[in-house]
Amino acid sequence: xxxxxxxxxxxxxxxxxxxxxxxxxxxxxxxxxxxxxxxxxxxxxxxxxxxxxxxxxxxxxxxxxxxxxxxxxxxxxxxxxxxxxxxxxxxxxxxxxxxxxxxxxxxxxxxxxxxxxxxxxxxxxxxxxxxxxxxxxxxxxxxxxxxxxxxxxxxxxxxxxxxxxxxxxxxxxxxxxxxxxxxxxxxxxxxxxxxxxxxxxxxxxxxxxxxxxxxxxxxxxxxxxxxxxxxxxxxxxxxxxxxxxxxxxxxxxxxxxxxxxxxxxxxxxxxx
Length: 272
What we know:
This protein is 41% helix and 20% strand. By secondary structure, it is of the alpha/beta class. The protein has one domain: Spore Coat Polysaccharide Biosynthesis Protein SpsA, Chain A, CATH 3.90.550. Helix 1 crosses helix 2. It starts with a strand and ends with a helix.
């Protein structure tokens, strides 16, 4: 899996997020050591560098980890779609995975998703099933330490899990070139809300091969600020845009994406 880059946009606005990103990044570096990992933190302070990274180094090698910091005010809206596109352009591998800081998956799910793309059987792969495939993890500090100290023994966290539904968020593997051609992430979605729905719908509607690995996701609980809650000031704008886009046919979607300045600019930057 040396032709794979995990891209992780983050703002560590709570102790929950700090625990979760230490967990997910350590898990990736330890279990898929040949892959590259890029973390981009957009915040008012370098929390990942000074608080997460020293903890990660206790458990695994970090030679394949790249850290980028972009200064932004703590109360600004988190432009996840723009950051993801920044990182897709930065990645040099043919397979890219947008990875949520709050989730982990079986190593076999990573391997299967990667293989489907490398063997040209899929363009986008979700590494978990649609239905009831989510373990929601209650993750207090003592469980966090025990889980990492165990080398990610799932039996440590399983007593703290409850099952929930899973649909289309969190994490996606994809063919980098195909995603750039398809319009990347829609940067008109700002902060949290419907960007995952739009991405899934558009790549299906445009005829790309979107598949799944039918296995579990472990999703770690976290506090929610305005950037991950229905109360964020852009939620209704995001929702309304999503409602309009989902009603469009393939030709209209192609025209819409080709009219977006960021799409033209990023395709040019990528040489596509």
